[in-house]
Amino acid sequence: MPVKALIVDDSAPARQLIKHYLSKMGCLIAGEATNSADGLKLFRELKPDVVTLDLMMPKRDAADTLDAMVALRTMKKEAPALVIVVVSAIPFQKTIDSFLNEGIIDYVVKPFTQYSFDPAARKLEKIFPELGSSISFHR
Q1: What pLDDT, in 10s, does the model give residues 68-95?
Q2: Which of 130, 121, 128, 90 shows the shortest CA–CA distance to 20?
Q3: Which domains does the chain have, with CATH numbers?
C-alpha cells in the first residue's frame, strides 16, 4: 500500500518542490491545500500517512481562526500515528522547538536548498521502510 501524503502550503512553487521530493521517495500525493482549514478538511477526507504543513498561510476569510498549530494539534488528536513535517520560512529555534514538542518528525526551513529534504527523507524512510532507501535529493 502506498504512503499517502498531503501537502498544505499556500505557495505553488513550494508545493511543487515538496511534491517532487515526496514523489521521488515513493509517496503518493493524495492532495494539496493552500490553507490550514482546507488542509484539515482534506486530512479528514483523504486520511494521509504524511502531512507537510506550512506555518504562514492566509486565512480563508475573516471568520477563519484555524492556524497551523491548531491544525497540527487537531490532526495529531484525530490520528496520533500521523507523520507531520513542517515546511516553513520561520527559522527561529523557539518556533522549531515548539513544533518538535508537538510531535512533528522534522522542520524544513524555506527557502529550500538542494539538501533541505535529506534529513526529513531519512526520517520518513525509517518510519516507512517501503519508501526509497537512502535517497539523496541533490543527486
Answers
A1: 888 999 999 999 999 999 999 999 999 9
A2: 121
A3: 4-127 (3.40.50.2300)
pTM summary value: 0.90
Contacts of 133 (CB under 8 A, 6+ apart): 125
DSSP tag of 67: -
Closest CA to 114 of 42, 40, 24: 24
User: 110 and 89 in contact (C-beta within 8 Å)?
Assistant: yes
Taking the C-alpha atoms of residue 111 and residue 114, their distance in angstroms, rounded to an integer, is 10
Q: 15 to each of 3, 58, 139, how far by Cα in Å?
A: 17, 15, 20
Side chain identity, residue 45: E
Reported as type and span, the H/E element at residue 75 is helix 68-78
Residue 132 C-alpha cell reads as 526509497
